[in-house]
Amino acid sequence: MPQATAGRPPPPFDRALLAGPTLEAARALLGARLVRVGHPTAGDRIVGRIVEVEAYLGGDDRASHARMGPTPRNRPMFGPPGRAYVYLVYGMHRCINIVTEQEGRAAAVLIRAVEPLEGIPAMRRSRAATRTPATPRTPDHRLAAGPGLVAAAFGIGLDCNGLDLCDTASPLHLAAPGPIAHGQPADTVLAGPRVGIGQAGEPAVSAPWRLAIAGSPALSRPFA
DNA sequence: CTAATGATGTCCT
DNA sequence: GGACATCATTAGA
After folding, report:
1. Residue A108 CB in 7 A reach of strand C
2. Which of A42, A6, A4, A50 is nearest to A165 (CA)?
3. Once rounded to an integer, what is the mean pLDDT over residues A109-127?
4. pLDDT tens sequence across A173-197
5. Residue A116: its H or E element
6. pTM for the whole thing?
7. Is A170 left (phi over 0), alpha (psi -120 to 50) or beta?
8. How far is the CA of A195 from the C1' of B4 (A)?
9. How far is the CA of A220 from the C1' of C4 (A)?
10. pLDDT in tens, A92-107
11. Euclidean distance between CA atoms A106 and A30, whole angstroms
12. Residue A200 CA to C3 C1' — how many Å?
């Protein structure tokens, strides 16, 4: 399991990887780090490894929030790549996306699960301030094991909308994946249908655009 | 173990 | 009115 990554800050995330096709961006985001600094209440520095994402394409993707064109809610999806798109789901949970492709082409990648690396006590404090507190029995690796839990654990609110996630000066940003130890096998990537989009119909329902790192204990739910 | 359900804002048909 | 890019808890097999 990843450990002891606190020594030196990892390099920022390359915006060029987000400016291209969304499925490639989604693939590149697996293994990247999500970094929270200057948390409003929990303080400290929170870092985790992105282990599960979903790709939402603009235009033809009937499951995407952008399918009806720009609205006040989805406006960030039409902006430049690398920015945050945060929204409220089910009236109570927040989800965070990373905007992809060129400005004007609405697309984004939803972060569905993150494996905690640093600032675990701060993550627990952050969860405690939400509707979905962690209990003492919640294992560390389950603290951000779902899209709503990622936002809860990292203290992500609608105020994070539009933040530049490729800028390490942002209170919330991305960092490049950690180095692969010599001789270690590359991660196996799982692909399956996206979760909770039954209304979209085919082909959106069956498109295998949910991606994850095989074997992570932090996945939101198993793959088929 | 799986299934049902409540909470609850926003946008859809 | 219905469904939702969700989560936790309770009821049941």
Report:
1. yes
2. A50
3. 97
4. 999 998 888 888 889 999 999 999 9
5. strand A108-118
6. 0.94
7. beta
8. 19
9. 18
10. 999 999 999 999 999 9
11. 21
12. 11
